[in-house]
Design goal:
The complex is a heterotrimer of chains A (about 160), B (about 575) and C (about 600). Chain A has about 160 residues and is α+β, with helices and mostly antiparallel strands. In chain A, about 40% of the residues lie in helices and about 10% in strands. Chain A has a 4-stranded mixed β-sheet with strand order 2-1-3-4, with helices on one face. In chain C, about 40% of the residues lie in helices and about 15% in strands. Classes of the chains: A alpha+beta (about 160), B alpha/beta (about 575), C alpha/beta (about 600).
Chain lengths: ~160, ~575, ~600
């Protein structure tokens, strides 16, 4: 069982989101998008609350959350790093950039640094193939990244 | 009905529009192998995700092979079911499934009963190409008091998910994750006991492999039987006697009551009793409760709630505790026959024998897996000692019989022991949908009207339709009765009541398809609903053959009241035979 | 755009935005004010020019000057020189990668010369956040024409005559698709635009949604009129925030102008559009999966028939087309089906947008007439292979497609030829590979993607692709055998033949096409255990050329397993038992003394 307990205020927020989609189970994915936008991730208790509001089983909510890679059940780092591993980036060496990031951050893909500053993920093509290989830190896009650029990028986010 | 002509393996066949290629082939004696596909006729249950791809066939003009289970026949279609291409594809796909399946068939609990194993045999798989370091799906095992989940053995047929959501509307299971790691599980892969699971076990009943199985209690029973300090008595539910024979190769619907008694005696039980006795007792209590509520209701007592709902089915009890916690005052407070039996056995009967409660072991043989959960409930224990110690399924009993080298088919017929082995026809029909309420009506009618029934068969209450309703004339007072089997249908009835759609006095609900005869502890039907139908008919044959067919006529029940309980719903009865319900709402 | 003498078009697509084009727009505007030219020239943020490689791009009209890699620091010079004095800033002009020649007018750029822009007609020309600019270029005229001049049947007929086929994958004739949906009577029908572009390396749908959102809305309304639907949905990737924003603006503007909503253009036709968000599942590109996803379910496909045209969203007849297909529709009504059918070749009409990427000089989004050859695309539009390397293959159709080689260079590109060559059109990704790319490794890359994206519903895709991937991994690690190659082939064909949806039915294509076209490379991996392109690390053998080694010890210091030993200023040795083939020594050596085999 999860250890996270939602405050009444958080429950109210979830309820508000569900109501804004008329508590319609067909809008589950929209509800999840909105809620993840609010909480940063979708932990167990949040999913239970959504299930309760939409009057569907929590197993179903969990089934949907775990199906789509955009939804996450673990919090991301303060600066979420995502490397595009689309084909264009792949043939231009995205894998080497991933290796360098893993080495520098000392985490695996999908992991978060112990201080919670950075998380590392790979994602599907972001459609910026002209800039391949591409690394996103939050909303910011870095193009034509080479392994040697990694340190510089990371340093710019460190206080 | 519009007809369609097509050619399957060079044979022209005419079928109704809407027929699948699989069904059309079956009509002309071609058995296309299937794995995920399952259809229970008469029950409105069908599973066809078209996911296993074992039933593929070649259809002229189509680029790819088509799944016959979910491809509709079209006029002029030309189908080939066993070309080299089809057979290679089928075998390759099955090999893939086997490559992600444990190889412990010899010691697997489903050995000999496994659809995947049968299929591998049918298709003649002799080798599975192994890729070095090939990943195999592994998951945490989950043991509950009633059923076990070992998803390493899951083939993603999705039958359990379909039954749990579409048929039972319980929503404990759902497919989670994606791709190779996709699996059917409770939310967050938590344990079933923490989910809204009702332990109806229908997922077990339809699982083609050993991914979902019952919790095995046979070892505990064997140990008790071997312990000389214990008095071990057994009760068997009505639905067991019309199904156990199947385990030993008998035709579905064969009644084996006498052999069952003999077998139990040979296993070493000190007394062989019948849950039917407790079913008669249930009718005394529930019938009285029903009449009491109706009389008061007609008399204008506003505190009385109607309809009264039966409470014999433990999965149903779990269901309303989880999903209808605001309606806990509607169901009858009667314990189930299994628990009434246990309560009477460990008081009245133990006293008679002069045996201490702790030295008596009560075993039940049930068509059900939820009964395992039920006998484990705290409210059915006295100082931690349960009224019913172990509940084993019909299948587990068959395993015990085999383990004890008993040639079941050649056994002579014997009778149940007295006093807890005597029963009426009314008790027998508890085993099928509509039976409990018919039994209640037989007694309630006579008590209410003071007249003897001219005819005890209430055929208007019988059948296999999911939701049924009938009005019985209680000598001028019309009594409206509703019946549902399968929890999804129960939900429909309950929602209808809540919305004021129905005006019932009494409702009978059973969780499993067809009632207890289709319970999750019964011999596996492997998707053949004809088996359930045969058991249904056998139940009524057994009833018709009984001399006594009304619960209140059971002389041992009369004796029990006069010697021990007092009167129905009296203080003693209330204490031993009734229960209360809990809000177990889960998200 | 009337009152200004000059327009500075700045690309505001995702690619150029990543290179700070938004700040460039601000600075250019400020410079115009500073130099008192704000009445003469206007800065316009447009959609994608397609030439993402060279972003941020500024195009100046009317003279068609094409500036590349423009930084905010360059703004002052552009305004002072070009806007004020009419002199081009030579250093910012595009240089032909082969001739080195500076090109002043974008019309003379190889990248644009062979292109024909229909779907992308407005991208890079208009401000996508301004409906007036769309209308000024005949926007919504097709909708008006269809509503006033044609019955739905006539309108569908026109589309059928045009020969337009779906641009999302299989190339099903769009007019016929509309006709089926039109014929299925129902109280409610839906139009669905698939903008869940998922092929890695394809981004035309994103570019159109960002650069010309109204063309999609207009086409959807026409579609609604034709099939009898009054409700449309755009199912768009949540990873496309800019496209979402532009579509939201466009929908709002269209409603304000009465081009969406009730009684459109005075007719009795009602139509409105809503956005639905994808959530990162490639399989949702498959229409039944997409519909399940829209219904709030897991995006698992279901067996067809029934097709969405019979039973789609909420069980109602629905027509699903992708963004690029829709973007073609309005022009067909304005210029006529004959015009459209005159472009392309016999069975594939019109144009196709490709996302050209990989080892090629001009990376970007291009639109070419069907029937053009790969050679023209790669060498004329794409400017040839990067760094003068040798062309090896081009992968089309994304994870569902295959690799085409030298021998396919002169095959006209259309739906049927690509299919016959073991690939497919797919959504139009075109990734160019050179001699350094290892084909078994490329196949492995695609299978990794498929394994990741398989929904897990059907066994051949769920388990089969996993086994394909594991076998390819084994081969790339030098542990494969010739029997594995047979296994790959049989398994691939069974997965194609038995999978439930398009994902599994095409996922083995990268394996099969590389087996067909690069058989020798596979054989080298499993027999001599070598990787001819040197990409598979485990198969590399590093050694030191004692003639060239100066004993500088640089390699010793970078070797993480201490596999290199030797005296200072003496030739060193690599101990093969310790070498993990990481290549660090090779990268470090200044004297080219490390040999790789």
């Amino acid at each position: 069982m999860s250890t996270l307990k939602l405050t009444d205020c958080q429950k109210g927020k979830i309820k508000e989101i569900c109501v804004s989609f008329h508590n319609d189970p067909g809008e589950l994915i929209n509800v999840l998008h909105k809620t993840q936008g609010e909480f940063g991730y979708l932990p167990e208790e949040v999913q239970r609350e959504i299930a309760k509001n939409l009057n569907i089983s929590v197993a179903k909510v969990c089934g949907v959350v775990t199906f789509y890679s955009f939804f996450t059940m673990t919090p991301k780092g303060k600066h979420p790093i995502a490397v595009c591993t689309g084909t264009a980036c792949y043939v231009r060496g995205a894998d080497k950039v991933v290796d360098e990031l893993k080495k520098q951050l000392n985490i695996e893909v999908g992991g978060v640094t112990p201080d919670g500053e950075f998380s590392l993920d790979c994602l599907r093509c972001v459609g910026a193939c002209g800039l391949a290989p591409v690394v996103l830190v939050g909303e910011k896009v870095f193009g034509r990244v080479e392994p040697k650029d990694v340190k510089k990028i990371l340093d710019s986010y460190k206080e | 009905m519009e007809k369609i002509k097509l050619t399957i393996d060079n044979t022209v066949v005419e079928v109704d529009k809407g027929t699948t290629v699989y069904a059309a082939a079956k009509q002309i004696g071609i058995n296309i192998p299937v794995l995920c596909y399952m259809r229970l006729e008469h029950m409105g249950i069908e599973n066809k995700p078209a996911g296993c791809r074992v039933c593929v066939v070649e259809i002229e003009g189509r680029k790819n092979l088509a799944p016959s289970c979910s491809t509709e026949c079209m006029e002029g279609m030309v189908v080939k079911t066993h070309t080299v291409r089809v057979i290679n594809a089928r075998k390759t796909v099955l090999e893939l499934i086997l490559s992600d399946h444990p190889k412990d068939c010899l010691i697997c609990s489903k050995n000999g009963q496994c659809d995947l194993q049968t299929l591998a045999q049918t298709l003649g798989i002799r080798e599975v190409h192994s890729v070095e370091n090939a990943e195999v799906s592994t998951y945490r095992k989950d043991y509950s008091p009633a059923l076990n989940r070992d998803m390493d053995k899951c083939v993603m047929c999705r039958r359990c998910e379909m039954i749990c959501n579409k048929v039972q509307t319980v929503g404990a299971l759902n497919a989670i994750n994606r791709g190779f790691t996709a699996v059917v599980a409770p939310a967050f892969e938590q344990d079933l006991v923490d989910s809204p699971c009702t332990f109806c076990g229908q997922c077990v009943a339809v699982c083609p492999t050993a991914a979902l199985t019952e919790f095995d209690d046979t070892k505990n029973v064997m140990q008790a039987l071997a312990d000389p300090t214990k008095t071990v008595i057994v009760q068997t539910a009505p639905a067991v006697r019309v199904a156990l024979g199947e385990e030993f190769g008998m035709t579905p619907g064969t009644i084996v009551t006498g052999k069952l008694v003999t077998a139990l005696r040979r296993l070493g039980f000190d007394k062989v009793f019948d849950t039917d006795f407790a079913a008669d007792l249930t009718i005394m209590e529930e019938g009285t409760e029903l009449l009491d509520r109706i009389t008061r209701f007609i008399g204008g007592d506003k505190s009385v709630k109607l309809p009264i709902l039966t409470s014999c089915c433990p999965a149903w009890v779990n269901f309303f505790e989880v999903y209808y916690p605001t309606m806990l005052d509607i169901p009858s407070t009667c314990r189930s026959p299994q628990q009434m039996f246990g309560a009477v056995a460990k008081t009245y009967y133990a006293d008679k024998l002069g045996v201490k409660r702790e030295d008596m072991v009560v075993v039940s043989v049930m068509p059900c897996l939820a009964k395992k959960y039920e006998c484990d409930r705290d409210e059915f224990k006295v100082n931690g000692n349960p009224d019913v110690d172990y509940s084993i399924s019909t299948r587990e009993l068959a395993n015990l019989i085999r383990a004890f080298n008993i040639n079941f088919a050649s056994l002579p017929d014997e009778d149940f022991d007295a006093p807890l082995g005597e029963s009426t026809g009314a008790a027998v029909i508890f085993g099928t949908t509509g039976g409990v309420i018919e039994a209640a009506v037989r007694t309630a009618y006579e008590v209410f009207t003071g007249k003897t029934l001219a005819k005890v068969d209430f055929t208007e209450l019988r059948g296999l339709e999911g939701i049924r309703q009938a009005t019985i004339d209680f000598n001028g007072t019309p009594i409206n009765i509703g019946i549902a089997h399968q929890l999804g249908n129960a939900r429909k009835l309950l929602d209808g009541i809540r919305n004021g759609m129905y005006n019932f006095h009494a409702i009978e609900i059973m969780a499993c398809p067809g009632g207890c005869i289709g319970g999750a502890g019964q011999p596996l039907h492997h998707g053949n609903s004809g088996i359930i139908k045969a058991r249904h008919e056998a139940i009524y044959r057994e009833d018709a053959g009984k001399t006594l067919r009304k619960s209140h006529e059971n002389p041992y029940i009369q004796k029990l009241y006069s010697e021990f309980l007092g009167k129905p719903m009296g203080e003693n009865a209330h204490h031993l035979l009734h229960t209360h319900y809990f809000d177990k709402q889960k998200i | 755009m009337g009152q200004y003498k000059m327009h500075l078009l700045v690309c505001g697509g995702t690619g150029c935005r990543a290179s700070e084009s938004a700040r460039l727009v601000d600075v250019l505007g400020e410079e115009l004010v500073k130099q008192g030219l704000e009445k003469d020239a206007q800065v316009v943020t447009t959609g994608c020019f397609g030439f993402c490689e060279k972003g941020p791009i500024v195009k100046i009209i009317p003279d068609n000057t094409f500036y590349v890699h423009v930084m905010p620091e360059d703004a002052a010079e552009i305004v002072a020189e070009h806007v004020l004095k009419g002199r081009r800033v030579a250093r910012l002009l595009y240089q032909d990668p082969n001739s080195g020649e500076t090109i002043e007018d974008s019309k003379h750029m190889g990248f644009y010369q062979k292109q024909l822009r229909i779907a992308l007609r407005n991208c890079g020309f208009i401000d996508p956040e301004c409906i007036d600019e769309y209308i000024a270029r005949d926007g919504y005229a097709a909708l008006g024409k269809v509503l006033t001049e044609y019955t739905p049947e006539q309108a569908i007929d026109i589309l059928k005559k045009s020969g337009l086929r779906g641009r999302g994958g299989a190339g099903f004739p769009t007019g016929i698709k509309w006709e089926i949906a039109a014929k299925n009577a129902a109280d409610q029908k839906y139009v669905i635009c698939n903008a869940d572009e998922g092929d890695p390396g394809a981004f035309m749908d994103r570019s159109i949604s960002e650069g010309d959102p109204h063309s999609v809305l207009e086409a959807m309304a026409i579609n609604g009129y034709c099939i009898g639907a009054n409700k449309g949905f755009i199912y768009i990737r949540a990873e496309y925030p800019l496209a979402i924003q532009r579509l939201e603006i466009a929908i709002r503007q269209a409603r304000e102008y009465g081009l969406l909503g009730t009684g459109i253009l005075g007719s009795d036709f009602d139509f409105d559009v809503e956005l639905r968000y994808g959530a990162g599942a490639f399989v949702c590109g498959e229409e039944t999966a997409l519909i399940h996803s829209m219904e709030g379910e897991r995006g698992e496909p279901t067996v067809k028939p029934p097709f969405p045209a019979e039973s789609g969203y909420l069980g109602k007849p629905s027509n699903v087309n992708n963004v690029e297909t829709f973007a073609n529709v309005p022009v067909i009504y304005l210029k006529g089906p004959e015009w459209f059918a005159s472009i392309g070749n016999e069975r594939s009409k019109g144009t196709k947008v490709f996302a050209l990427a990989g080892k090629i000089n001009n990376v970007g989004l291009i639109e070419v007439p069907m029937g053009i050859t790969l050679r023209e695309v790669i060498y004329e539009i794409g400017g040839g292979i990067k760094d003068g390397k040798k062309f090896k293959a081009v992968q089309t159709g994304g994870p569902s497609g295959g690799c085409l080689t030298e021998k396919h260079l002169d095959t006209p590109i259309d739906f049927d030829n690509l299919l016959a060559s073991g690939s497919m059109m797919g959504s139009g990704g075109m990734i160019v590979m050179d001699e350094d790319d290892c084909m078994p490794a490329v196949a492995k890359y695609y299978l990794e993607f498929t394994v990741e994206e398989s929904c897990g519903k059907c066994a051949p895709c769920r388990v089969g692709n996993k086994r394909l991937h594991e076998t390819l991994e084994k081969i790339c690690e030098g542990k494969g055998t010739e029997a594995d190659l047979d296994y790959l082939r049989n398994l691939s064909s069974v997965i194609k033949d038995t999978s439930l949806c398009g994902l599994g039915q095409t996922s083995p294509n990268p394996v099969l096409s590389t087996l067909d076209n690069f058989w020798d490379e596979y054989v080298a991996h499993v027999t001599t255990r070598t990787c001819p392109s040197g990409r598979c690390k485990a198969l590399l053998h590093y050694s030191i050329d004692t003639e060239k080694c100066t004993g500088c010890t640089a390699c010793v210091r970078v070797c993480s397993t201490a596999a290199i030993t030797g005296e200072k200023r003496q030739p060193h040795v690599i101990h093969q038992d310790k070498c993990i083939h990481c290549g660090a020594c090779f990268d470090k050596c200044k004297f080219a003394a490390i040999n790789v085999q």
